Amino acid sequence: MSNILKKSKSLEFDAIWDNYIIQAVPVSEARQQLYKSRVRQFILWLRGKQIKKAKDITLSIQREYIAFLLSAPGVTQGEHIRCLRRIFEISEIRIFQNVKIPRGPSIPHEIFSESEIALIRKHVKGYLRDIFMTGLYTGLRKKDICLLKKSEVNLEKWEISLKMNKTQKMVQVPVLKPLRDYLRSAIARSRNDYVFPALAEIYQDKPCRITHNFIYLLRRIGIQNIRQNDSRRHCSANLKGIHSLRHTFAYLAGKSGVSAYILQATLGHSSAKMTEHYLKHATEEDKRRCLQQIEDYLEHLK
User: Fold this and answer.
1) Is the Cβ–Cβ distance between 167 and 270 less than 8 Å?
2) Which residue of 12, 88, 187, 285 has the fewest CB atoms within a 10 Å radius of its CB?
3) Mean pLDDT lowest among 93-97, 162-166, 216-220, 297-301
4) Pairwise CA distance, residues 35 & 40, whole Å
5) CA distance 109 to 142
6) Are 43 and 13 contacting, i.e. CB atoms less than 8 angstroms apart?
7) No. of H helices and E strands in the chain?
8) With a threshold of 0.85, does the pTM exceed it?
9) Of 186, 190, 202, nearest to 137 (Cα)?
10) 154 in helix, strand or coil?
């Protein structure tokens, strides 16, 4: 190990990558290849700057590389930099520890209308139907749905209890009636620990495939999904996708009178501010209906 570390101080790609493979938590083959290409790209970029020693990767060089990523099409800078930080740290090379990673302007997800929900329900099949049904009726994120285990679903209490992958926060989500038979049937068919084995297998191999196929479904059935450009990254983003199911669930819950406090606990948000963000989808019709209740109440007092 000491010889490998000594070599890695000289920014040898093979040595740095070997260290990572030996010590890192296993990931899918597709993700491993992605990480490998990032390390190779970074080292080649450094060589172009005549940098061959780890000690020469100054803060200014690190900031320059981040600026380089900002100009690259389709690159998610934050995840990219955190990936390099983890891999190089295994070889005792500390980089990107004291630099601020700029974030592009966030693009909010839009909700699905009732007519769009009916259209998707009519055409969605297979593992995409699994994620559509579960996302719409629970508000869970994609990863939590894909890796949902049988032990996390209580068929007697009709409750899903799990630690959310993104926040590590425990949540208890009641299983609504339209989802109960669907989950019961899925659990009965499953031959391993996962509620949706096909989803789990695809997610562990190539999670982006699920997202892309869902977007393709929306396009195929004619759901308008306007794309907005992120000028800082020269790429575009879909306004509707799998995460829109979570927003739609929150919107429908709020529209049905569920309090922000209850919704916050169900969605696993750390703050009420995030929940309020999800509730901003209220339409003029929703506002008018709620205000009408105030008008009726005041009229009753006369």
Assistant:
1) yes
2) 285
3) 297-301
4) 9
5) 14
6) yes
7) 15, 5
8) no
9) 186
10) strand
Contact 75, 50 (CB under 8 A): no
**Are residues 95 and 85 in contact, defined by beta-carbon separation less than 8 angstroms?**
yes
Q: Which of 21, 27, 76 is nearest to 207 (CA)?
A: 27
Read off φ and ψ for residue 104, nearest 5 degrees.
-75, 165
pLDDT score of 149 more than 90: yes
> CA–CA distance from 258 to each of 174, 228, 266, 275, 278 (Å)?
13, 31, 11, 12, 13
How far is it, in rounded angstroms, from Cα 65 to Cα 67?
Answer: 5
Q: How confident is the model at residue 155 (pLDDT cuts 50, 70, 90)?
A: very high
What is the C-alpha R_g of the chain? 23
Q: Of 217, 220, 214, 223, nearest to 114 (Cα)?
A: 223
Q: 230 is written with which tokens?
A: 């992120």
- For residue 232, the 8-state DSSP code is T
- b/e map 197-211, b = 16+ CB within 10 Å: bebbebbeeebeebb
**String of DSSP letters for 172-227:** EEE--HHHHHHHHHHHHH-SSSBSSHHHHHHHHH-HHHHHHHHHHHHHHTT----E
Cβ–Cβ < 8 Å for 141, 164: yes
Tokens of 120: 């998707």
One-letter amino acid at 137 equals Y
The total number of residues written for the chain in this structure: 302
Q: Which amino acid is at 161?
A: S
End-to-end CA distance of the chain: 84
